[in-house]
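> agent: user asked for a holo structure of the chain below bound to LZUJQKHR. Plan: (1) validate sequence alphabet, (2) canonicalize SMILES, (3) run complex prediction with ligand conditioning, (4) return tokens. Step 1... ok. Step 2... ok. Step 3 dispatched.
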Amino acid sequence: MTEQLAVAVLGAGGRMGAEAVKAVDAAEDLKLVAALGRGDSLDSLAGTGAQVVVDLTTPDSTEANVRFAVEHGMHAVVGTTGWDEQKRRNLDALLEAHPGTGVLIAPNFALGSVLASAFAAKAARYFESVEIIELHHPDKVDAPSGTAVRTAQLVAASREEAGVSASPDATTKSLDGARGADVEGVRVHSVRLRGLVAHQEVLLGGPGEQLTIRHDSFDRASFMPGVLLGVRAVASHPGLTYGLDGYLDLND
Ligand SMILES: NC(=O)C1=CN([C@@H]2O[C@H](COP(=O)(O)OP(=O)(O)OC[C@H]3O[C@@H](n4cnc5c(N)ncnc54)[C@H](OP(=O)(O)O)[C@@H]3O)[C@@H](O)[C@H]2O)C=CC1
Ligand SMILES: O=C(O)C1=N[C@H](C(=O)O)C[C@H](O)C1
């Protein structure tokens, strides 16, 4: 048998972390060497032989976790939200000083979600209007979701490239928040509702028609094939990759 890849999971006691621990444990080619929670020192990672660190923690701790991993020669697969442009730029600079080390920041690990965002970006140039609704469980701490932000970025880039104007909107009077958040010119609406896991709709409107691109994660098991794909591929993608689509061939 070929040697197993040594994997550490940060945020191991959380909803996603616990699922990732099970998925890594069950994979024959991977070996779980550490499962750390909030109280555990990152220093304890150093002696574990971890080659890949999976970060599923919180927006306020993920940056320091990833920095530690990179500075200690470990690749990182990151599902945690909060990686704005400035943080990604800082990480890029750090990775330049650590050539050969790879970091994947994946706003969503569910393959269906990655495809839905790619389809939405392709479609967005053909419609006058586009808005995004993301729907999540009420224990989520951030809004809008990282997936919605990433989708809005892809949609905005596609529309800009095609020279499409901003979505029409005659609103001059509204209550604060009524029109959602503006992410690169795309309106994003966040719903938090008990019973939900992670869901998103991209609404595309043209004269007399609407296309809705919807993805539903009913269970966190939906994220695990993407986590495992990231863990297995990150070492062969040095530098920073933003979005699991960077590891897939979605261009045709
Ligand atoms: N990319 C993707 O596909 C997905 C991404 N996510 C994202 O992943 C993140 C985690 O989500 P979720 O599992 O639902 O959240 P949880 O709150 O359930 O889990 C986060 C866990 O991280 C722990 N933690 C906090 N700080 C640290 C630290 N410094 N070191 C180690 N562990 C720490 C928390 O401990 P404590 O409870 O003690 O605070 C908690 O157990 C969120 O940003 C979420 O948006 C979620 C689903 C899918
Ligand atoms: O917190 C969650 O649950 C999720 N977070 C990610 C996000 O913010 O996009 C991914 C998925 O939507 C679930």
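> agent: step 4 complete. Summary for user: Residues 81, 107-108, 136, 140, 145-147, 198 surround LZUJQKHR (ligand 2) (CB under 6 Å). Residues 53 and 76 are 5 Å apart (CA to CA).
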